[in-house]
Amino acid sequence: xxxxxLHATGTLTLAGDLSGLSGTLxxxxxxxxxxxxxxxxxxxxxxxxxxxxxxxxxxxxxITVGVAAxxxxxxxxxxxxxxxxxxxxxxxxxxxxxxxxxxNAAGLSLDRFSYIPQLQPLSNTTGSQTLNSDITLLTSLNxxxxxxTGTGSTTFGxxxxxxxxxxxxxxxxxxxxxxTNDKGFIINNTG
Length: 191
What we know:
The chain is built from no helices and 22 strands. Strand 12 and strand 13 form a beta hairpin. An eight-stranded parallel beta sheet has the order 2-4-6-9-14-17-20-22, with no helix packed on it. The chain has a seven-stranded parallel beta sheet with strand order 1-3-5-8-11-16-19, with no helix packed on it. A five-stranded parallel beta sheet has the order 7-10-15-18-21, with no helix packed on it. The mean pLDDT is 90. The relative contact order is 0.13. The chain is mainly beta.
């Protein structure tokens, strides 16, 4: 259909053929959406809750994380984009836009790992994944997870741009794109 899907609470698992769906897939509440098919090519919005990507995913339509209309001075919900379920060797190649509105609370920066949208990869103990996505940081993003004792890592092959910071709390990663985001990287931020 052309109207898309709005998911609010509970768990919604999408594993079938979504090639006929042209509307936006939106997680608008506290629920978890599990996208386990690569046949959906439309826009994806993760406004709140969790989006678990459980497959290789490519295309030109963006994954937008957050609610841009949130007040810049008000702590907002923390949406979580997880690619761990896609497994070892997975490749995600869609533009990712982080736009959660909130940047501070009473003048104090929210660029701390527990206050900003999260990107959760596969554990480095389990394996490696690749994000060939350009990431636009209109607000900051926390790379949370990936830690472990193995030899795995997350490869970022796209460009990182925008006004926000890339907060790297833990894990192992390789970067090969260009990085022009205004706030740069915050490494080993423990909260």
